Amino acid sequence: MFDSYRSNTLQYDPVKCINCGMCTTVCPHAVFAPGENEVRLADYLACMECGACQMNCPTGAITVESGVGCAYAMFYAALTGKDEPTCGAGDDACCS
Ligand code: SF4
Ligand code: SF4
Q: What separation in Å is there between the alpha carbon of 20 and the centre of ligand 2?
């Protein structure tokens, strides 16, 4: 059975990466980290499948099936005035 705490749908092909850094900029959970020739998948399990990296990657090096949990977090952050959406921890988490 699929367990979102142990795996997710994020896939990264470093061969296609041109090291533009967009994914490290847009990812709210620092899943990607800068590398010398291509980015590194630094914290795979932190991915909340928001899809931002895939949408902003110019070479198609990243694919992910976007979920709905992050949308809840973003709405919650907007409604409560939080600076950064949170997901997966604390009393206000949608998927704990
Ligand atoms: S899908 Fe969202 S959380 Fe996951 S790596 Fe991409 S930007 Fe980060
Ligand atoms: S956005 Fe795509 S091409 Fe740019 S650094 Fe990330 S994986 Fe590489």
A: 5
The strand pairing partners of 32, in sequence order, are 41
**Ligand 2 atom at minimum distance from 18 CA:** 3
Please state the pTM of the whole predicted model.
Answer: 0.72
**CA nearest ligand 2 atom 4, residue:** 20
39 near 17, Cβ under 8 Å?
yes
Ligand 1 and 50: CB distance under 6 A: yes
The DSSP call for residue 35 is: -
Place of tokens 């409604």: 79
pLDDT for 13-61, tens place per residue? 999 999 999 999 999 999 999 999 999 999 999 999 999 999 999 999 9
* Backbone torsions φ then ψ of 65, nearest 5 degrees: -90, 110
Half-sphere exposure of 45 (CA within 13 A, CB side): 6
> Residue 63: nearest ligand to its CA?
1
